[in-house]
Structure formats: structure tokens, C-alpha cells
UniProtKB/TrEMBL annotation:
Any Pfam family: ACC_epsilon
The species this protein was found in: Microbacterium mangrovi
InterPro entries for this protein: ACC_epsilon
GO MF: acetyl-CoA carboxylase activity; propionyl-CoA carboxylase activity
Listed name of the protein: Acyl-CoA carboxylase subunit epsilon
Amino acid sequence: MTLADDSDTDAAPLRVEVLRGNPTDEELGALLAVVSTAYAEEAADALADDDRRPSAWSLSQRGLRRPFARERGWNNFPD
């Protein structure tokens, strides 16, 4: 037995194949309703948060150092 769901015209038709037994149309409708709702909830929960927090890597990174002042010579620290 195969069912086609025409509620979403953009999506590919849904195919349900019953391997054992002989379910009624109401049972298949209930199954599709439960599975569709569970899938929609799972997809809604799988979205990433909009508030991006800095990662531990970016929090621990150090700033860049100034380039060497080669004109100062050896061991000539600034005053």
C-alpha cells in the first residue's frame, strides 16, 4: 500500500510501504500525523541559536605583538 501526501507541492510525494498487516486509512492517517509532528518538532529544535557566543578558542587568543624595533640595537630597552 502506498500513500501520497499532497499538502506540500514543493516536497517529493511521501511514500509509505506497509510490509505486514492491513492497516485502515485512519490508522495510516494517524501514523502520518504523529510522525509528521515529531519530525517538525525535531527540525525546529535542530536550528542553531541566533546569539553566537565567542568560542573558548577566541576567548583565549592573545593579541598581536608589536614588530621588533631593530634600530634600537642590542639590549636597548625603552625608558
